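Before relying on records like the one below, remember that each one covers exactly one chain. Contacts with other chains, cofactors or solvent are not represented anywhere in the record.
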Amino acid sequence: MKPLLRHPCTVLAMLITVACNSSTESPAGQQIAFWSDRDGLRQIYLMNADGSGLTPLTRDTAIHVDPAWSPDGRKIAFATNRDGNFEVYVMNADGSGVLRLTHDTAADFEPSWRPDGTKIAFATHRDGNFEIYVMNPDGSNPTRLTNDTAADLDPAWSPDGNRIAFDAARDGNSEIYVMNADGSNPTRLTNDTATDYQPAWSPDRSKIAFVRQITVGNAELFVMNADGSGVVPLTNTPSSSEVDPAWSPDGTKIAFSSNRNGLSYDICVMHPDGSGITPITNSPVTDAAPKWRP
């Protein structure tokens, strides 16, 4: 689960605390899954990219977060504590066919599909520390990729499936790293006194968007080249926070969560240069973690 403003070491604490219109059919890439506190329940929702057609996909008293589309757009992986502990589940795109993938006494969350659909990366606390694992799409063969005393979180596959970006406080502060798909050759990309997290690859592999927490209560979106060069800010709202960047499949938009219009978070979209920011939800509660349908 990605909290809206956090240092990686606070994730575990946040993990253990914590009527809509029917959706019309929408072309691929023009639907967004996200989680929301609407109706007092933290559930996974689906909407069209303009905010219309809002549809709940989960509906029970548990917490549901971290939606992640399968590459064919037919399934959504997510994290939930519906069985008393956060585990990774998968469901069909209409909310049916819910299947549990992980089975561990520690928290498993933040699923991310490999672009060819053959693996799901996820973050877990099963080794007493936050690490990144991969597993088959049916939950079999969970394999540890990282092994570090720092928290390794937010796995994000490169579009070619050869690398995984993630964030970690390996050098005393949370920075963006990238590693090979087998966990080898971890390389630090950012080097800043602020906290950097939530990397998101552009569809053409050339860029990585991420969050930089400037101060308590203020996080901004940045973008950099895939090698860590050319870091550029996309947002500048010192009194609020912008988090959860997600590129549209065609690379023309970035969706994100923002509380710039008040205390609660809404889903917004913007152009990749940070211009044209447009809210697409307007709720008195939190809407967060948008993910475009492939």
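Residues 11-15 form the longest helix (5 residues).
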